[in-house]
Amino acid sequence: MIIKAATFKVSNSDHKLCPEDNKPEFAFIGRSNVGKSSLINMLTNQKSLAKTSGTPGKTQLINHFEINNEWYLVDLPGYGFAKASKKARHGWEEFIAAYLTQRKTLLNTFVLLDARLPPQNIDLEFMGWCGEKEIPFSMVFTKLDKLSSSEKQKNILSYKKEMLKQWEELPPVFATSSESKFGKEPILNYIDEILKTC
Fold this sequence. Notes:
With about 200 residues, the protein is an alpha/beta fold. It has five helices and seven strands; from the N terminus they run ββαββαβαβαβα.
């Protein structure tokens, strides 16, 4: 897939206010500061489509970006640490859960995982929740440019082992680097495959 057009459509905190034109949607979510905005910008060939920040928790709304006039890339608020009040974080969790469980046009959720870290409980719990709610998702490892080849393999393998303690089989797994653009084509090709089955 080649992304020829990527435009911001709408931001909101209520899944009922999301676009109603029934275009397929692919959501991106992850722990705060996992490199989500950088990955979205890399996938769409845009430098500032999604706002990047050194401050975790910058994304606070459901952001819809229309891609090639065919589908939506949805940027969701990060979970975990963020410089926001407990009440604000609880509010995000509620509308994120509502979006993920009730949005009928959502075809896949890409869960971003920091490849530099060992398996994080918050990530494992979130993916477990997705499984319980039967929300299709994929695992996307980020920041691979920060690691040596042996570290990459070790960290990704440890995540897979941890997942297989609870799962009979793993969801699709992708490895990426926003800096080198590594992993871009596999993700876009996977989205294309799903779109062709719609």
